[in-house]
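Tokens in:
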């Protein structure tokens, strides 16, 4: 059994589509993957628009003897399993021709990005996509990029038109799965249609995609270099859509997939949408559909569901009732995060440890407050299967690159990695091996 991956074994015995439908079993644990044969999972979440005063713990030195800020009351039961990492900053150039609130665009790579209408180019991929190359290739979704249902102009503090916090190897922005309903459909497929109808639908859609790609490529020689770049971006998006269609069909053609979960209502938004998204993320991680998730959270929908009559932008600048709204929003985010941690801790893995133990979870924002990109709010949780010390308030020197943290996480799953982008050191106060 050690010569087989879990997917290969199940593909031979159950069929290719069934190869992704079961939780991680001890007898099918992957060799040389994660710790004790249990895969490591990584989750990156961007809350958008920074945090309110009172978010950071007090103390000017790194310490394991620290007090949770009042806002962190919802995480009291998880204090020993989380760390706050201070003075991590975005040091790269801000997004060109874009407002300061677009800082979320390069939270996961600290690399220059541009306004959506100028092509969505980033100079390097985000760390979640690097992680997906290391640990995600044996799963149905090497990575899941999730976006919030947020129709406001600044979209969760990440900029108009942006649908995720992830960028691929070509520097292209990855289209996020927008909201819990679409995430549900992505994971579960359309169970109301027969396998034959699904196969016919998929064949028709794939045929259309193939035709579009061929037709567009025939235009390439007639276009300017700038237009060729635009065309290349568009065809890359089409290939992404085609791949998602393939995955959706593969899942939909099976009756038994993830643990059963009722299809969410169409009008789901705000707090309810976040909570269900967390449920679906946990199920996808448990079933090993994916090992890498990025989640761009909405802001205005959460404020609205809390009956707070203030815009996310006014909230971030403390205009009017913005300061109080910010504190309430931050506390609600941490309540929801505690819910997610509880869920992951309740899911046991093959080695007897929890899914939380085998995960690395980062909850952050590309801004501290207003337009400040220094000393970002960073909450790091989980043990990555081992070799991580939690329960620490880490106080770095000012203007420490945020890529130190991403490098530390990437090196945890790939010890051969020596450096990544502008990282300088490993976060040794937390990563002990």
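Residues out:
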């Amino acid at each position: 059994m050690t010569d087989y991956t879990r997917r290969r074994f199940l593909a031979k015995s159950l069929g290719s589509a069934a190869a992704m439908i079961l939780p991680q079993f001890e007898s099918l644990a992957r060799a040389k993957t994660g710790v004790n044969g249990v895969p490591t999972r990584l989750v990156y979440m961007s809350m958008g628009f920074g945090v309110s005063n009172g978010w950071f713990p007090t103390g000017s030195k790194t310490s394991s003897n620290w007090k949770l800020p009042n806002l962190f009351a919802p995480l009291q039961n998880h204090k020993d399993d989380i760390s706050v990492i201070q003075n991590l900053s975005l040091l790269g150039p801000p997004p060109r021709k874009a407002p300061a609130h677009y800082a979320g665009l390069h939270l996961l790579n600290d690399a220059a990005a541009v306004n959506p209408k100028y092509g969505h180019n980033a100079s390097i991929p985000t760390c979640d996509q690097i992680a997906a190359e290391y640990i995600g290739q044996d799963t149905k979704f090497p990575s899941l990029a999730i976006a919030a249902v947020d129709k406001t102009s600044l979209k969760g503090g990440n900029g108009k038109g942006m649908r995720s916090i992830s960028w691929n190897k070509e520097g292209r922005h990855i289209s996020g799965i927008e909201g819990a309903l679409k995430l549900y459909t992505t994971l579960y497929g359309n169970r109301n249609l027969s396998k034959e109808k699904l196969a016919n639908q998929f064949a028709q859609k794939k045929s259309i995609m193939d035709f579009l790609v061929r037709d567009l490529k025939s235009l390439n020689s007639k276009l300017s270099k700038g237009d060729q770049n635009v065309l290349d971006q568009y065809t890359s998006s089409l290939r992404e859509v085609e791949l998602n269609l393939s995955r959706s069909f593969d899942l939909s053609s099976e009756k038994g997939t993830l643990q059963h979960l009722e299809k969410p209502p169409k009008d789901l938004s705000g707090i309810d949408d976040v909570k269900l998204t967390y449920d679906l993320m946990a199920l996808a991680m448990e079933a090993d559909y994916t090992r890498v998730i990025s989640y761009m959270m909405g802001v205005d929908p959460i404020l609205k569901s809390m009956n707070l009559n203030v815009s996310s932008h006014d909230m971030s600048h403390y205009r009017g009732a913005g300061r109080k709204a910010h504190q309430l929003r931050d506390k609600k985010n941490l309540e929801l995060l505690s819910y997610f941690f509880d869920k992951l801790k309740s899911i046991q893995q093959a080695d007897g440890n929890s899914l939380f133990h085998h995960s690395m979870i980062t909850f952050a924002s590309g801004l501290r407050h207003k337009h400040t990109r220094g000393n970002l709010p960073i909450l790091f949780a989980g043990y990555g299967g081992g070799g991580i010390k939690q329960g620490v308030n880490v106080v770095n020197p000012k203007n420490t690159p945020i890529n130190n943290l991403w490098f530390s996480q990437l090196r945890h799953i790939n010890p051969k990695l020596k450096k990544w982008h502008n990282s300088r050191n490993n976060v040794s106060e937390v990563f002990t091996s």
